[in-house]
Each structure stands twice: as C-alpha cells, then as structure tokens.
Amino acid sequence: MSALIQIFKSKSFSSLIGNGFGALLGFVTLALLARFLPKDIFGPWLVFLAIYGIFETLRIGMVMNALVKNLAQAHDPEEEALVIGSSVFITLLLTAIFIVLIIVLYFIFGAINLFPQYLFFFKWFIVMAILTTPHNYATWYLNAKLNIVSMSMIRILNQLVFIAYIWFVIRYDPNIHKVFIGYALSHIAVSIMAVFMGWSGLQHIFKYTRDYMLKIFHFGKFSMGTLIGSNLLRNSDTFIIGSSFLGGAGVALYNVPGRIIEIVEMPLRSFAVTELPKFAKLYADKAYDTLRSEFERKAGLVFFLLLPISIVSFVFADYIVLLIGGKNYAESAIILRVFASYMAILPLDKFAGVMLDTINKPNLNFYKVMIQLTVNIIGDYLGILIFGNLESVAFVSTLTFIAGMLFGYHQLKKAIGVSFRNVIKFGWIEFVNKIQLIINRK
C-alpha cells in the first residue's frame, strides 16, 4: 500500500491525472461544439484557433522553456525574482508587438477587402491576447515550480467555465460570436485568479534586468522557432485542406479525429515539460549518466503507457468518432485509425525535443521540427493532388513524426549517448515495475 501511495503522490502521477482530466474536459468541449455548431460555423472556429495558436506558440516558445530552465537552476529567491521579472517583461512586450501588428493588418485587409468573412477575427485576436496573458504565464510559472496541482486546477477551471457556457448558451443559440464571448469569459475567470494568487508574475515586473532578458531571448529564439514550427506542423493540414477543393467541410471532418489526438497530446506535452526542470537540474549538476538513464526510462515508460490507448483508438475508432461528432462525422473514423497508428510514437518524439533543449541544443530541436514541417507540407500537397482525399493527408502525418523522431534520436546519440534500443528496453522494465507495484503491494 505504501508503494501505491508513493506512486499516487508523485509529481508525474499528479501531472498525468490532472492533465488527463483536462484532456477529458477538452474531449467534452470538442464534442459539444461539434454537436451544437453547424459545420459552416465549427470550421471557421477551428481556423481561428489555428491562427491564434501561432501567436500563443510564439509567446510560449520565447518564454516558457527558458523560464522553466532558469528557475530550476536559480540559487535563491532573489535570483528567481529576476528571472520572473525579466520573463514577464518579455511576455508583455511580445503581446504589445502582436497587438500593433494585428491593428495594422486589420486596416490593410479591410482596405483591400481580403477575407472579409474573417475580418472580425482580428478584434478577437487583440481581446484574447490581453485576457490570456496572466493565465498562460501562471501555467508556465507553476510548471517551473512543479506545482502540478495548482497548474492543473487553473486549466480545469478554464475548461469548466467554457463547457458551462456552451451548455447553457451555445446549445440554444449556435452563434459564432457567442462562442468567442464564452471563450473570453473562461479566460477572464482564470486570469483574475492567477493575478490574485500571485502566479501571474506581475508583482515582479520591475525586477527585470538586461542580462536575464538577453539570456531568456537567446535561449527562447530557437525554442520559439521550434514551437512556431510545431504549431504550423499541427495546423498545416488544416490550412492546406481549407485552401483545397475539400474546403471548410473537409477541415471539419479532418479536425474531429485530429482534435482527439490533441486531447491525447495534452497530458503528454505536460508530462514531458514536467520533466524539464528535473532534466535541467541534472544537466546543470553534470550528472550526465543519470540524465541519460532518466531520459531513457521516462520516454520509454510514456511510450508503453500510450500504446494501449493507441490500440483502443484504432479498434474502436467508429464509436469514438460517433461519440464526439455524431453521425455527421462517421466517415472520419478511418482518419482516426491512421492517426492511432502513430499515436504511440508521439512521446518518443516529444521527449527527444525536450532533451535537446535541456542539453542547450535548442537549435537542433528547431531543425528537427523544420524537417517535420517540410515533410508534412510537401506530403500533404502531393497526397491531395494524387489521391484527392483526407486519408492521404493523415498518412503523411505518420511519416512526418517518424522523420522527426529519427533525427532527434540520432542527435541525442551523438550528444550524450542516448540509445533508442535502451529507451524501449528500460521503458518496458519501468512500465512492468509500475504495474507490479500496483498489483502486488496491497
């Protein structure tokens, strides 16, 4: 029993449960919107999220990993305050630049009548950029401090508010403007909480220094490029499908199984980033052998944890798609089966990227994502041109992640001697040990 309790109290388990519940709520959000919104509204909403996600990725890439890494290596509270103040200043600066750029683009697009049906997006870009800042920074800070419970709490609160709004408002009035209002309200609630609890970092805003800002910038420029590339990779399918003859309906059909994969990725991303402070501390202490061993065990463990989910998603794809999107999206089941075929390798790819950042090689992580983006874009266009269907686009995604994984592990093997074979071997041993602890220790 003591061993079981120890597992339940671990940071990794707390992260897995918290983010797993968050993923479940994301699943519910997607299912409700898919059922309550017509495709001609649901499709544009997904387009908005894809475009706005690029900005969010820019902020996350520039600040989050650098914040996590530097806070993990800070020696005292005074140094922590300098790191926080400098990272908050950069966050606000990026937000201000984004707002100015959006205002300029709004008037340009309006003057030349470009995409008039999406022109109202620009107003919401500005609103969401402001409202989400305290919320997002709080999740980065809490992750860096390994305060997993609080981090999960504010994410879950954000989703619960939005789900309640969908159920009581969107359900009876499926209007895209109402969707934006609900999305904004969910972030207002969490941002107010983040400021009140002192998680937003705003109290340290005047403690920034030029040296720490430069330190964060030089690390973050590659990390930002990596995450922007990852975001483009994740949404390039949407853009390419939407601009082809498959149109908005194709976007909606493709994104239902795509969002299911993102729900699975949510706890995976958080689990990987949760390990970043531990990896960073080991690297700073020059405990390279321990670092390599920890990486191989953790990456392999998450691979085997996701493998059953991958198999279940493949076998029961028809029922999963029906549960989320209803009968209108039944034909998306085959796409989900293709996605399920590479779902299990996602942790291997994600952990490789985290480790490249940890060993101060964010440039290699950036190159890895650029390789994936190139494979995906070329493959998508060829798939649509030759086969003219969504299944070919989904298949290209499998090749994309395999290409990135191979490049990542090749670089890690050269840098610190990571063995892909050991990832599978020690990951399986770790997985079996965890299962035996749960079964045998009463």
Mind explaining what this structure looks like?
- The chain has one domain (2-440).
- The chain has 16 helices and no strands.
- By secondary structure, the protein is an all-alpha fold.
- Residues 1-9 have low confidence and may be disordered.
SSE topology:
Layout: H1 2-9, H2 11-36, H3 39-72, H4 77-112, H5 121-144, H6 148-170, H7 176-197, H8 210-243, H9 247-284, H10 288-315, H11 317-325, H12 333-343, H13 346-358, H14 362-386, H15 390-416, H16 420-440
Helix pairs in contact: 2-6, 2-9, 3-4, 3-5, 3-8, 3-9, 4-5, 4-8, 5-6, 5-7, 6-7, 8-9, 8-14, 9-10, 9-12, 9-13, 10-12, 10-13, 10-16, 11-12, 12-15, 13-14, 13-15, 14-15
Largest sheet: none
The portion of residues assigned to helices is over 70%
Mean pLDDT: 82
The proportion of residues in beta strands is: under 5%
Q: What radius of gyration results from the CA coordinates?
A: 22 Å
Q: Which spans of ≥5 residues are poorly predicted at pLDDT below 50?
A: 1-9
* Total helical segments: 16
Return the structural class.
mainly alpha
What are the secondary-structure elements, in order, as H or E? HHHHHHHHHHHHHHHH
What's the domain count? 1
Distance between the termini: 5 Å
DSSP summary, beta strand count: 0
Overall outline: globular
